[in-house]
Design a protein that fits this description.
Number of strands: 18
Number of helices: 8
Number of domains: 4
Structural class: alpha+beta
Helix content: 25-40%
Length: 418
């Protein structure tokens, strides 16, 4: 038998080598499947998830909740040091990695081990509910959009704003009936590149970008500070770069220096620059310039999400407990107008009673001092029903599983008595 595996010159045959490779591949595949479906991996993921939640909870003492979510739960790894260093090393699996492995482990173990019989129907339902819950949590994290709508009495808006993301709005105000807005996200500005858009007859060249900054008038800053731009208010302001704000109540002031470079509409060649402009959160009023007989405005503002309907605040009510300043209840009576669906109705939004419309939920979140304005939290979550569906399926699975065993136990007891 030994001689049959070799050619006359002592070399192994191709058939033998191929068989050995296939055997090794199958063995590695079996080991991989055993690892993915093992109970040890399940326990390891659950322990890692508990440690991750504990670490994230402690981190909220020093950092904001959104920053903690990004570092610990919306990442594949937790990195050290977190900020300020060019060299980083992964020190712990992040939420995406732990949750993804747990989801794969649950699905693979269910497919491999459990028998598809009516007797195991309860187990199947329980696992299906857990899978839906994990997948729903992942989809929520990936696709949920949170924003705010600030309204004063009598004010109407058809957009909400994201205070954690900025955008550069280039607005064509030539037409008196409407404005044409071209919004450039903060993530695009951060790349410091040449920005082109069909709606703009010029290029926007990003010369500097500051994730956080402090603005001061040149004549007040001292220390030989110079203006970083040469047009409008930017010619009188100096910019001091700051590290990213990480405190729970910290706020970043996003700033950028952009250059407007006209483009010839016929040849596409660039022309003489219109100058450099400073755009920042700290600059309230838009900056205006003219080109090709059109009036343009530049403004850095929170990212906006426009809607096919509008909300008008009719009245904001703020009730307090007698003799204190502790809020008892605060509510907003608004008018919802949707021309596409012929909707025009009044709605009262208050604690635990949100407005749900067109896949978005409006919560009464906060209000400003002296009750000058109400703040509605706007949440768009395409997976909002996943937790409810998962809980119902798990509950049904538990009832079916315990009911099946209860009936079997009752039958055995009647048989024993008989």
């Amino acid at each position: 038998m030994f001689w049959a595996c070799f050619l006359p010159d002592g070399k192994p045959s191709n058939t033998s080598v191929r068989a050995d490779k296939e055997s090794a591949s199958k063995e590695m595949l079996h080991k991989l499947v055993d690892l993915i479906t093992s109970l040890k991996l399940t326990i390891a993921c659950l322990v890692a998830a508990m440690l991750l939640v504990l670490a994230g909870t402690f981190a909220q003492v020093h950092f904001g909740i959104h920053l903690v979510q990004q570092r610990y739960f919306q990442s594949l790894f937790v990195w050290w040091p977190p900020d300020g260093r060019s060299f980083k090393i992964p020190i712990f699996p992040g939420g995406y990695l732990v949750g993804g492995l747990l989801l794969i482990n649950l699905i693979a173990a269910h497919v491999r081990r459990f028998q598809w019989t009516w007797r195991k129907l309860g187990i199947h339902l329980i696992h299906a509910g857990l899978i839906i819950m994990l997948a729903g949590g992942l989809f929520t994290d990936l696709f949920e959009v949170e924003s705010q709508m600030r309204l004063t009495n009598g004010e109407t808006k058809n957009y909400s704003e994201d205070s954690r993301r900025d955008e550069l709005a280039v607005i064509d105000t030539t037409n008196s009936e409407f404005d044409q807005v071209t919004a450039i996200p903060e993530a695009v500005l951060r790349q410091k590149r040449v920005i082109k858009h069909p709606s703009l007859p010029f290029q926007i060249v990003v010369r500097n970008f500051f994730q956080n900054s402090r603005l001061q008038m040149v004549d007040e800053s001292g220390n030989g500070a110079q203006a970083i731009a040469d047009r409008d208010v930017g010619a009188q302001v100096s910019v001091q770069p700051l590290s990213r704000a990480t405190a729970p109540n910290g706020q970043n002031v996003v700033s950028a220096v952009i250059e407007i470079v006209p483009v010839d509409p016929a040849s596409g060649a660039t022309q003489i620059s219109l100058g450099r402009w400073l755009v920042s959160d700290a600059l309230g009023a838009p900056q205006t310039f003219s080109w090709m007989n059109r009036t343009w405005q530049l403004v850095m503002r929170p990212a906006r999400y426009y809607k096919p309907y509008s909300i008008t605040l009719q009245k904001f009510t703020h009730e307090r407990y007698a003799g204190t300043e502790i809020p008892k209840n605060f509510a907003s009576r608004v008018t919802l107008i949707d021309p596409e669906r012929s909707t025009n109705r009044d709605v009262l939004i208050y604690m635990n009673h949100p407005l749900r419309y067109r896949g978005e939920t409006f919560y009464q979140a906060a209000f400003e001092k002296d009750d000058a304005a109400t703040i509605l939290q706007v949440v768009h979550n395409p997976s909002s029903l996943a937790p409810y569906i998962a809980c119902i399926i798990v509950a049904v699975g538990l009832l079916v599983q315990f009911g099946y065993h209860l009936v079997g136990f009752a039958r055995q007891r009647r048989t024993a008595i008989a």
